[in-house]
Amino acid sequence: MLSGRRKVVLVVILVLVAGALLYQGRGVLSHSKLSGQELLKAMRGARISLLLLSVALIYCCYALRALRWMRFSQHIGPASFWNIYGMTLAGFSVLFLLGRAADPIRPLLLARKERQPVADTFGIYALERLFDTASTAVIAAIGLLLLRVPDDASEVTRDLQRAARSVGVGLCAGVLAVVVVLVYLRLHGSALLERRLESARALHGLRGSIARIVLGFLRGVQTIKSWGDLFAAVFFSAAHWGLIALIYALVSQSFGGQLASIGLSQATLVMAFSIVGSTVQLPAIGGGSQAGSFLAYTAIFGVEKEPALVAAIVLWLITFASCTLTGVPLLIREGVSLGDLRRMTHQPQVSPDEAGGGRSGA
């Protein structure tokens, strides 16, 4: 018999997963004959302990993000870890609630909380995105290039393997290009660009906003002044995405059956498909990271559709939605309303004075 507490946890998880299945899995449901009984069986058979551990680890990932942000922002003044950690959770909660259009809100929340210039904060945000893109591209490239299919695999699976390797090569080339641009800006191009943009910095309108953001990004690049700074940035990025890969493995194993055989290396491949799926529309499935995970589970590892769909949706809930458990209360505590968030989404380029007007926090 389940204890009362575990029953409550199980019911909550079942409700969340069921709702997510209906909404996020509607593309798969409309193109596949899935058994409702098998879906329920897959959900009920999950190991709650591994799922809770995965939730705890995703919060560790946000902590690593906060530490990396502190390292990047050291050139614009001191910062509080707890303030940055809280606004990181709040910012990703807004991203979950309002979609990709709300992506710029997180640096605005951080600038407001720490009373830092918006332009510099957006520069750090751009630098952070570059490190995230490079890290995920490396992981995805490794997973896709190492993809192996059985000798008796279907032609569709072999086509998928060839396409995956092509994407992996493209990602490697993209990472190399980013490294070249960063090295050039760091050694040669930054000073020249700063001189050219300095006169446009004080202008109003779009030109002035772009100039301030680019200057902030250039200052962000300049934060990497030593091998220690570079090592810290690479370490935090690698640790963050390494934990994400571990979460993919734990969530997969929590459902047992064929999914229990997915270890860290296989989880890296699932993660690679998830990353690619978040940027493209997959035939008969749709877009989204959950679609990429579902495709990897079924086409590569031969997992049945029902447990594969449940695992893909739970991965999405843990890695993308679980931040709202604390992020939304933090937004409420900061006095940020839904109307404020929508206004910030449509008008993200507020002035530094406005961004610095928030409370300093605990």
Structure commentary:
- With 362 residues, the protein is mainly α.
- The protein has one domain.
- It is built from 16 helices and two strands.
- It has helices spanning 4-24, 26-31, 36-44, 48-72, 81-98, 105-114, 118-145, 155-198, 206-222, 227-254, 264-277, 289-300, 305-321, 324-333, 338-346, 352-355, and strands spanning 281-282, 286-287.
Key features?
16 helices, 2 strands, 362 residues, mainly alpha, globular, 1% strand, two-stranded antiparallel ribbon
Strand content of the residues, in percent?
under 5%
Question: How many DSSP E strands?
Answer: 2
Shape designation:
globular
User: Could you list the spans in which at least 5 consecutive residues all have pLDDT below 50?
Assistant: 27-31, 281-286, 348-362
Number of domains: 1
Radius of gyration of CA atoms, rounded to a whole number: 22 Å
**Helix and strand succession?**
HHHHHHHHHHHEEHHHHH
What is the average per-residue confidence, as pLDDT, rounded to a whole number? 74
Question: What topology, given as strand order, has the largest sheet?
Answer: 1-2
User: How many individual helices?
Assistant: 16
Helix content: over 70%
CA(first)-CA(last) distance: 43 Å
Secondary-structure content class:
mainly alpha
- Biggest sheet architecture: 2 strands, antiparallel
